[in-house]
Amino acid sequence: LIKQRVTKSKVVGADETGAKVNGNKHWFWAWQTPELTFITHAGNRKTDIVKKHFPNGFPNSTLVHDGWKPQLNTPAKNHQTCLAHLQRHLIYINKLYPESEWGILFLKLLYQSLELKPKMNQKNYEFERAKIIQTLEGLLQNPPDKQHKKLMSFYKRICRERQQLFVFLYLKEVPPDNNASERAIRNVKVKQKISGQFKTEQAAQNFAKIRSVIDTTIKNGMNVLEAMRLIAKFEYQFAD
Question: What's the rounded Cα separation, in Å, for the pair 122 and 47?
Fold first, then answer.
């Protein structure tokens, strides 16, 4: 039921993280909204996991993610690249090439877009947004030095994802980052630090199911123990 409701949401955040299962590296995937969290366990980090759970993608949703290819290729009404990931990566690249003006200007543009987001109701908002888009186009028309290989790779990525950088400046409900999805999947890391690993795939999937219900319950201001009691009661009735 959580997964079905996630599919129908206007904005969906997605993320994935590695975890050990019986000594082998597996993955936990999360798709979430402000009211819902759906987590599942998988043996890989490939596109087939997305297709398994969301075969039609998110035709009515803006999908917010960090640019991982399976998420990037998921059908959706809109995509929003996580600006926090871009900022961290660009800060690292700028340290490698301090003489490059392109990286500095692009990082400044990202900060300007984040500062503009809270001003959506102001009169000059559309004008300021247009300036940001114009600056983006100007930077893309003047690429960095080809000798700066990592910066050039970043530039090529931005060219590919140019249409999904500033969706959040057009849609009020869309966030500029994927932090909520990272929070949704953080408990997997906490669990792993405590116990080291999951012993079986079934145990990993059980954890994903329980965590999905707990997080969704908390997001909706409900009592977790009461929600679990009602779910257990429903399951027993259904079994009869």
Answer: 41
- Pairwise CA distance, residues 216 & 36, whole Å: 5
Q: Where are the alpha helices (DSSP H) in 56-147?
A: 69-72, 83-96, 101-116, 125-141
Q: What are phi and psi of 59, to 5 degrees?
A: -65, -20
Please give the torsion angle defined by the CA atoms of residues 15, 183, 88 and 28, in that order, rounded to the nearest 10 degrees: -30
Give the tokens for residue 121: 């109701």
Q: What is the pTM of this model?
A: 0.91
Give the helix/strand (H/E) hosting 40: strand 37-42
Residue 173's closest CA among 64, 51, 20?
Answer: 64
DSSP letters along 169-191, please?
Answer: GT-TT--SS-HHHHHHHHHHHHH
Give the whole-angstrom CA distance, residue 216 versus residue 224: 9
Spatial separation of the C-alpha atoms in residues 29 and 222, rounded to whole Å: 24
pLDDT in tens, 97-150: 999 999 999 999 999 999 999 999 999 999 999 999 999 999 999 999 999 999
Q: Which residues pair with 27 in a beta bridge?
A: 18, 42
- Of the chain, the percentage scoring pLDDT greater than 70 comes to 98
